[in-house]
Design goal:
alpha/beta; 15 helices; 17 strands; about 20% strand; globular; binds 6-O-phosphono-beta-D-glucopyranose
Length: about 500
């Protein structure tokens, strides 16, 4: 596995700790060897020492001294500029040598953990030096990190650049939300149980809410984030992926293409939000100074290395319709934001009211059934239903049936990157975004971005104090439809 951008944040926080944890669980192929490709001068020993410190800090499981000692023998450093021919020539020789020394059998997994501006150059060099071609009986694959483009034209171009060097079946576009255990469980919940699917449609479901809330601000990622904003950073990829898992039809089988065929149909069926609908159905917000857990924090525009006039959104809420038979008139409300009171990602499927007879006569009524899929933290699933409070009179209160991963399975879920790296090694692309999924997602997002940034009278950018649940306008988006956001 060759990691481009090996001295970066992603390698230290996610990739190497993930590989270490796979090794600790006994699942790492014995020959797996990592070559970190980056510009800074460094020896293998220095590289290993840095990664050890990072892994001790970020690993899911405590790092054992013995295991680390054997694990680090798999790590090598390769110093080169991304544009330097000689660096790739040496890389090819080095990989051949590693094949002989460590039994990697000519298999190559290239991981592009670099800024998008570097993609094209690296792809061209891999192509020029034949590194994209596997020897007979071996394989060569590429993993591409997000952001996968900033709009449809750039995504198309990027897809072409990658396609020149690697066929689609060897291209793995990471969306780490798909590697989260609870996201994988959505299909199991829906299709391994008989009781949900008959209700999973417009006859019984009133609406769906998808929330990804973070208490953190933009931190040190200001310059990247400011060019992106919440819609591109989270909705275009992670949240549309979750939405498509909730809304898709059952696939004919579990192969990568069958699953992704069904997901892409959902994305293609999203009703475009264009013209006046942008102001009506999408709320964008930016946090001002406030307090999180009693600690005062600065506003978005005062964050490190950020434009004090920035109009980038750190919050977005939108109402999405899926124009197909199953979901006719069932809105999906999606919201995501930074500097909200707490961190959590959940999908809430809100069922329709029971008929207004018997217990439902009063206008105050009893509550509806809600199935909540908690993606993180406290991963699990709960179903809210009504129950009679014990006693002489009939008083009804909502209660919950609750499943927690931790208590049911007695062990922590693996990190998303652990699952995804293993899948890429074994060539299973089910949990990776296919080219058409990414492109159709941009097709949906672009008109909203254009209305915000390219129109003469853009819809307003709303403010919300850090530590609140977002702008008032987002509450109004729901109130207008006689609904309300759930409190996490
Ligand atoms: C990333 C976004 O893809 O996902 C970040 O760029 C966001 O802005 C992160 O914070 C959230 O991921 P997780 O796994 O921490 O919920």
């Amino acid at each position: 596995m060759v990691i481009f951008g090996a001295t970066g944040d992603l390698t230290q926080r996610k990739l190497i700790p993930a590989l270490y944890n796979i090794a600790a669980d006994g699942d790492l192929p014995a020959a797996l060897t990592v070559v970190g490709f980056a510009r800074r001068e460094k020896t293998d020993e220095q590289f290993r020492a840095e990664l050890e410190a990072a892994t001790r800090q970020f690993s899911r499981q405590a790092v054992g001294d013995e295991l680390w000692k054997s694990f680090e023998q798999r790590l090598y450093y390769h110093c080169s500029e991304f544009a330097d021919d000689d660096g790739y020539k040496r890389l090819a020789e080095r990989l051949d040598q590693i094949d002989k020394d460590r039994g990697t059998r000519g298999n190559r997994l290239f991981y592009l953990a670099v800024a998008p501006a570097e993609f094209e150059g690296i792809m061209q060099k891999l192509y020029a030096f034949g590194l994209n071609h596997a020897a007979r009986g071996s394989w060569a694959r590429v993993i591409v990190e997000k952001p996968f483009g900033i709009d449809l034209p750039s995504a198309l171009e990027l897809n072409q650049v990658v396609a020149r060097a690697f066929p689609e079946r060897d291209t793995f576009r990471i969306d780490h939300f798909l590697g989260k255990e609870t996201a994988q469980n959505i299909m199991v919940l829906r299709f391994a149980n008989a009781i949900f699917e008959p209700l999973w449609n417009h006859h019984y479901i009133d609406h769906v809410q998808i929330t990804a809330s973070e208490s953190l601000g933009v931190g040190s990622r200001g310059p990247y984030y400011d060019k992106s904003g919440a819609l591109r950073d989270m909705v275009q990829n992670h949240l549309l992926q979750l939405l498509s898992l909730v809304a898709m039809e059952p696939p004919t089988d579990l192969s990568a293409d069958s699953v992704r065929d069904e997901k892409v149909k959902v994305i293609r069926a999203l009703r475009p939000i264009t013209g006046d609908a942008v102001a009506r159905d999408v709320v964008r917000g930016q946090y001002t100074a406030g307090a999180i857990n009693g600690e005062t924090v600065v506003g978005y525009r005062q964050e490190e290395r950020l434009d004090p006039q920035s109009t980038t959104e750190s919050y977005v809420a939108l109402k999405v319709n899926i124009d197909n038979w199953r979901w006719a008139d069932v809105p999906f409300y999606v919201r995501v934001g930074k500097r909200l009171p707490k961190s959590g990602t959940e999908i809430a499927v809100q069922f329709k009211n029971a008929p207004s007879v018997l217990f439902n006569k009063e206008s105050t009524g009893v509550g509806t059934n809600v199935l909540v899929i908690r993606i993180q933290p406290d991963e699990g699933i709960s179903l809210r239903m009504q129950a009679k409070i014990p006693g002489g009179t009939v008083r009804i209160e909502p209660v919950k049936m609750d499943f927690h991963y931790g208590t049911s399975f007695g062990k922590a879920s693996p990190e998303a990157y652990e699952r995804l790296l293993l899948d890429a090694m074994s060539g299973d692309a089910t949990l990776f975004a296919r080219r058409d999924e990414v492109e159709h997602a941009w097709k949906f997002i672009d008109p909203i971005e254009n209305a915000w940034h390219k129109s003469d009278s853009p819809p307003k950018l709303c403010e919300y104090p850090a530590g609140s649940w977002g702008p008032q306008e987002a509450e109004q988006l729901m109130e207008r439809d006689g609904r309300a956001w759930r409190r996490l």
